[in-house]
Amino acid sequence: MAQELYFDDLDVGRRFESEPFAVTAEAIKAFAESYDPQPFHLDENAAADGFFGGLVASGWHVAALTMRRFVLEGLPVAGGLIGAGAELQWLRATRPGDTLRVFSEILECRPSRSRPTRGTVTIRSETRNQHGAVVQVMTTRIVVPRREPA
Amino acid sequence: MAQELYFDDLDVGRRFESEPFAVTAEAIKAFAESYDPQPFHLDENAAADGFFGGLVASGWHVAALTMRRFVLEGLPVAGGLIGAGAELQWLRATRPGDTLRVFSEILECRPSRSRPTRGTVTIRSETRNQHGAVVQVMTTRIVVPRREPA
């Protein structure tokens, strides 16, 4: 396991990225069955007539896959990645066979005023497909412990 | 199926809510294994020593479950619920055995300037637990077709 990172170890502008990962039709449908059961996420034939003209991944699936990459390959924050909030923009559809990759950058590191033992770190992540096109922008605020209380 | 709704059918202030639904330890772990594999979402014993003092649902799981309720019990928008973006705040942890319910309200209905065939509708949804406490606020922007082009 990589060395654990504390608030004091993080700086604005730090960048990190994931390995590429494929999105299959099976994975798209499995997520949709549990969490977003709409025809354009579940069935190629029904999807062909819909808004997207074919099967596409739920935006929430893309968000969840982006989170998975954070956990497996992102910043090894002490105590884990604890989200306070997030903002999502879905710019393009993700289709079966697409290969995605997450490119992240720290936007802000803000010490807590009320709690000297922690701070909030804001990370902007672009999830791009195999053509380099951005399919999702996710901005996440995480709670990060300080190595030494302020 | 309920009658399909178009942009022209929706108004600011319209409210809707879901039935209550339970969140089990099994469901928390299943989501986490696929999308947010951190100890406090996967294992009661490991979670006991962590930030939350016990097993908690991933915030992304709460978001996905909220989306599921939108699809099953939310607005039956013509063509489906197509998200352009979303904002999330996670205010409290969701624990095994909690029962959640989603309370939603339309905040804004904005016709598209560039595309006369659609508009954007902004919905604010509070996901509350069995104590009435808000665990998540989700604000979603969806793309909704017009019945008649503007």
Automatic annotation (TrEMBL), chains A, B:
Signal sequence coordinates: none
Transmembrane residue ranges: none
Coiled coil: none
Pfam families for the chain: MaoC_dehydratas
SUPFAM superfamilies, sorted: Thioesterase/thiol ester dehydrase-isomerase (SSF54637)
Family matches, as InterPro entries: HotDog_dom_sf (IPR029069), MaoC-like_dom (IPR002539), MCH/BMMD (IPR052342)
Protein name in UniProt: MaoC family dehydratase
Organism whose genome encodes this protein: Jiella sonneratiae
